[in-house]
């Protein structure tokens, strides 16, 4: 499809129990292993959480409905990682464009003398 992969998020990674314990009904560590195997950033884990589904059905983003929820904080951490990565790409692009413009100007002045 030609869509760049920015990283891996392990969705439905675990289920939080009532006493704070985590259950992993689908196994553990597949997202991290996948990111390491293919060289992608591991962005984080999102648990099974009923409010994610409920908010999605209502067309409301979980962070807007539950701004202080522990899962909202996990989503925000993932967004921060993505924002940082995209910002570094933007800065790299600016640097590359400046270098290209310099080379282009140098090349153009060289050809004018011929």
Our Rg estimate from Cα atoms comes to 22 Å
Number of strands: 4
Per DSSP, the total helix count is 4
Biggest sheet: strand arrangement: 1-4
Distance between the termini: 45 Å
Strand content: 5-15%
User: What global shape is seen?
Assistant: globular
Classify the helix fraction into a percent range: 55-70%
Largest sheet: 2 strands, parallel
Structural class, by secondary structure, is: mainly alpha
Question: In summary, what is this structure?
Answer:
Helices cover 57% and strands 10% of the residues. The protein is mostly helical. The model has no long low-confidence stretch (mean pLDDT 84).
Written account of the structure:
The structure is a single chain. Helices cover 57% and strands 10% of the residues. The strands form two sheets. It has a two-stranded parallel ribbon. A hairpin with a 5-residue loop joins strand 2 and strand 3. It has one domain (8-112). It has helices at 30-38, 50-58, 62-65, 70-112; strands at residues 8-10, 15-16, 22-23, 42-45. 9% of the residues are buried. The radius of gyration is 22 Å and the shape is globular. The protein contains four helices and four strands; from the N terminus they run E-E-E-H-E-H-H-H. With 114 residues, it is mainly alpha-helical. The longest helix is centred in the last third of the chain and has 43 residues, at 70-112.
């Amino acid at each position: 499809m030609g869509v760049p992969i920015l990283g891996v998020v392990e969705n439905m990674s675990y289920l939080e129990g009532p006493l704070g314990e985590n259950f992993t009904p689908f196994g553990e560590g597949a997202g991290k292993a996948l990111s390491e195997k293919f060289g992608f950033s591991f962005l984080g884990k999102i648990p099974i959480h009923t409010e994610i589904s409920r908010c999605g059905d209502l067309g409301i983003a979980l962070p807007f409905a539950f701004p202080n929820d522990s899962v909202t904080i996990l989503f925000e951490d993932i967004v921060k990682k993505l924002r940082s990565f995209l910002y570094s790409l933007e800065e790299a692009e600016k640097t590359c464009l400046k270098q290209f413009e310099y080379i282009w100007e140098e090349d153009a002045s060289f050809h004018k003398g011929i």
